[in-house]
Amino acid sequence: MDSSWPENLATNRENVIDELVRGREYATQLQFILHEPLGDHGTVPAEDLIVKILRSFTKTLSLLDSSDSGEVSQNPATTNVSSPCFDDRRSENSGESRKSPALKDGRGGYKRRKTSNTCTKVTPNPVDDGHAWRKYGQKEILNAKYPRNYFRCTHKIDQGCQATKQVQRIEEDPPKFRTIYMGHHTCKDTRKASHLILDSTPRGSYFIGFESNIPTKHDHLFPSIKQEHREEIPSDITQNHSSSDYLFSSDLTTFDTSVPTTMLGSDQGDVISGLYSCTTSSRSLDMGFMVGSMDFDNMFHFEDDGFFLAQS
DNA sequence: CGCATTTGACCTGA
DNA sequence: TCAGGTCAAATGCG
């Protein structure tokens, strides 16, 4: 971020902050209600709050959109910042556009995605985002020491989930892995939600847990991913920072808050920006929140032009 | 036997 | 033209 937001953006920025603060308040109220679901709040107020929260986010996004935040996307893809998280490129649907009739083996024929709408994350070890991934390719990259690994959601076939990610080791000594998320999970991966709920609920607190810093031996690079499913979140999540990382990024993101909500605005923002560089050029925010025992990721999806309730 | 990974071929965008 | 992204046959593993 360079410190120079255009002046006319200053107001916009204030508005954005204002909206975010408001949204946070709504979320806090909602959290309160969720803790007493049987109270006299009933479900209607909760839904009402949800609507307000969504509206707040929408407004924020549109503000950001209008200001065309020049702060982000100037980062090259090689940094840990990248363009928007939500990936609408999937409309082209890589696999389905195989057309070339004269294919040997019937291979190839896909539409290569453009490098847009991705969310990049750099971590000390391959991440587990709670989703099930299946490796579908590996490629040596020019000028890169390590090959890049390509993963798609395991539910691509059965649920048509279009989420993919690329994982590449970028450093050896302090091990560093760059994970690029693309696409949007449309699958219902109940595993993630249930784990998160189970793990976090008892604590009753909130906190953003990201990377598991448990040093893994990358004997084969992505032990966790290889299993292609579930790295469970160890139940001793308290003593270790939560082991799975719960991203703040497109879809793979789950916001595991475990810090008092009052902290949400400031400190965690730093944490987030340190690990993730998901850019939200507005339209592409897709975050999942863990509030109390509720996984927002299962409730909302942030779509291109707003949000919609995905039900719960 | 079913499913995941490996790996070389193929295709596309720059 | 080439680097990168994806496909799918072959292979391995549980």
From TrEMBL:
Its main location: nucleus. Residues 70-83 have a biased composition (Polar residues). Residues 122-185 form the WRKY domain. Signal peptide: none annotated. Residues 86-108 have a biased composition (Basic and acidic residues). It is found in: Nucleus. GO terms for cellular component: nucleus. Residues 66-123 are annotated as: Disordered. The keyword RNA-binding does not apply. The keyword Nucleus applies. Keywords: DNA-binding, Nucleus, Transcription, Transcription regulation. One of its GO terms (molecular function) is DNA-binding transcription factor activity. InterPro entries: WRKY_dom, WRKY_dom_sf, WRKY_plant. This is WRKY domain-containing protein. It comes from Tetracentron sinense.
